[in-house]
Write a structure and sequence with these properties.
Bound molecules: cytidine-5'-monophosphate
Number of helices: 11
Order of helices and strands: EEEHEHHHEEEEHHEHHHHEEHE
Distance between the termini: 48 Å
Structural class: alpha+beta
Number of strands: 12
Largest sheet: 6 strands, mixed
Radius of gyration: 20 Å
Strand content: 15-25%
Helix content: 25-40%
Shape: globular
């Protein structure tokens, strides 16, 4: 008896974490218009959830579908999940002996603020690549280099999320070196003002004003990568918060595009008595704590400061305030 289409296909569930750039040095501009980076990325406890369910193949081209619950993530056509599933299908290919790739019904529970510098869309894409291949029982069929290349096409941050765990990210984002990470679970407070800050615009302003970092962020980044390569305690990481909060070459460009980040950053420093960093191209601001409990306490302080006006509301309403923690990787130095 011949097996039906997608006979081995099965539903899968993936957790897609947010990321934070503890450092972000822009090393130079590339011929393809992208930038070479040197950046220490860490995954966070804050995460989206993605489920993929095979729907059985009809005739003709497979049609995947996507339903998004939770935060508004914009039109489905722009969602990287569907692009990643299509990319995974192309990797598996068709032909005798190849696994079947029936259409997938994707359901995304969106918890990571969108277009915030937290990598949510890229993380969803990595979860979709990996999840689709597992749903089709095709993980072993696909060459891991080919998978990484396909992932990088979908977005610069996708290879980091495919690898999982804290990492040094270089090149456009395709060179991912796993780091041992942090002992314990340092807390992170995220404050995401509701302003639109597009990544290409931030890089464009960076180019028009400087073209390359001055080297100091690159040095901080190299130093942190080395320390996290050996494993660093949460306390020691928090002790470096001052250096890390200014170790982002994109900060001046983000501020030029959105000057209201200055008063909100200053107000957060005043309310919390701690240095405040910017993740990626923003607009998310962050601060480090030795534990998630302390980050939760800080979230309550900021919430109250927003209500009484000490932290200004900019853009379309009050900021998203989220307490979470750094996840140590699969090979993390501690659990
Ligand atoms: O790859 P991704 O779609 O995430 O990149 C968004 C934009 O960010 C790119 O269009 C590019 O302007 C900029 N970028 C860059 N160099 C990188 C990553 C992103 O210039 N390494």
């Amino acid at each position: 008896m011949t097996e039906g289409p997608g006979a081995h296909a099965r539903p899968v569930l993936r957790v897609a974490p947010a990321k934070l750039n503890l450092t972000l040095a822009v090393v130079g501009r590339r011929a393809d218009g992208f930038h070479d980076l040197h950046s220490v990325f860490v995954p966070l406890g804050l995460a989206d959830r993605l489920s993929l369910a095979p729907t059985g193949a009809g005739g003709g081209e497979p049609v995947d579908s996507l339903h998004v619950a939770g935060l508004d993530s914009g039109p489905n056509d722009d969602n990287l999940v569907l692009r990643a599933i299509a990319g995974a299908r192309a990797l598996v290919g068709v032909g005798p002996g190849r696994p079947l790739t029936p259409p997938l019904a994707a359901r995304l529970e969106k918890r990571i603020p969108v277009a915030a510098g937290l990598g949510g869309g890229s993380s969803d894409a990595a979860a979709a690549f990996d999840g689709a291949l597992e749903a089709w029982d095709a993980l072993s069929e696909v060459d891991s280099d080919a998978l990484r290349r396909a992932a990088a096409q979908v977005g610069s941050d996708v290879p980091f999320f495919l690898a999982g765990g804290p990492a040094l990210v270089e090149g456009r984002g395709e060179r991912v070196t796993p780091l041992r990470g942090v002992h314990g679970h340092p807390g992170i407070l995220l404050v995401t003002p509701r302003v639109a800050l597009r990544t290409p615009d931030v890089f464009a302003v960076f180019d028009s004003t400087r073209g390359a970092g001055d080297g100091s962020v690159r040095m901080s980044s190299a130093h942190l990568a080395q320390e996290l390569g050996n494993g660093l305690s949460a306390t020691d990481l928090v002790a470096r918060a001052g250096v890390l909060a200014s170790a982002n070459d994109l900060l001046p460009a983000a501020i030029m595009l959105e000057p209201r980040l200055v008063p909100i950053r200053r107000a957060l420093t005043r309310a919390l008595g701690r240095p405040i960093g910017l993740s990626g191209s923003g607009p998310t601001l962050w601060t480090l704590y030795p534990s998630a409990t302390e980050a939760e306490h800080a979230a309550a302080v900021v919430q109250a400061a927003v209500v009484d006006g000490a932290v200004p509301t900019i853009g379309e309403g009050p900021p998203a305030i989220i307490a979470t923690s750094i996840r140590t990787g699969p090979e993390g130095a501690a659990t």
